[in-house]
Design goal:
By secondary structure, this protein is α+β, with helices and mostly antiparallel strands. It is about 45% helix and about 25% strand. The two termini are about 15 Å apart.
């Protein structure tokens, strides 16, 4: 759960590390259970069958690549700052240059806010997706902020946070991007209580 900016609470693991752990566990489950049907695994972890297949596929690919975990905080902050600037100016070429060619963008609307249902893969597709969203809201404000203790970006309109962007950075490029628009997960930035 994200902690509010400036909070004294321990922010806990980053969104990226939680997603990596989820993929790792799902892949381990597939290896151990082998013959268990996708539907049974989906029911056990509380996800759709298609989502479990996607997570397992992503986990297997990442394990095969054996990517190192993240870069330095300074590098991360510099990349996020350049990312924010490219988004604000609408500079497609600069934005694409900041994204790993195999970048994956995932959106979380929680079924409450319209969002991409499937991951978007590839630097050009992700950049065009983001710039397309930003063009729809000309009064949007992008602010660099700490997201779970890692540099990220909040997206606001008229002072109200409508989205949070978290990113994994490796070798100076964004490799994974999470766009959280689910209002239940934005309470730390909006100041509204969580729905129960």
């Amino acid at each position: 759960m994200p902690t509010s900016p400036g909070s004294d609470q321990d922010p806990g693991p980053s969104l990226g590390s939680l997603m990596a752990e989820r993929r790792r566990l799902l892949n381990l489950g597939y290896r151990m259970l082998g013959s268990v049907q996708d539907a049974e695994i989906a029911e056990t972890v509380g996800r759709s069958t298609a989502a479990c297949r996607q997570l397992a596929s992503s986990a297997r690919r990442r394990l095969a690549e054996r990517r190192p975990v993240g870069g330095t905080t300074t590098e991360h902050r510099q990349v996020v700052s350049a990312f924010r600037e490219a988004c604000e100016t609408g500079d497609l070429d600069s934005l694409v240059a900041l994204l790993d060619p195999a970048v994956e963008s995932r959106s979380d609307g929680g079924g409450k806010v319209r969002s991409a249902l499937r991951p978007i893969t590839g630097a050009d597709k992700v950049a065009r997706f983001l710039l397309g969203l930003l063009r729809r809201e000309p009064d949007v404000e992008l602010v660099e902020d700490d997201i779970n203790g890692t540099p990220g970006v909040t997206v606001s309109i008229a002072g109200t946070t409508i989205a949070v962007l978290a990113a994994d950075v490796r070798d100076g490029l964004i490799t994974d991007l999470w766009l959280v628009v689910n209002p239940d997960k934005l309470h730390a930035w909006t100041g509204t209580p969580t729905a129960r």
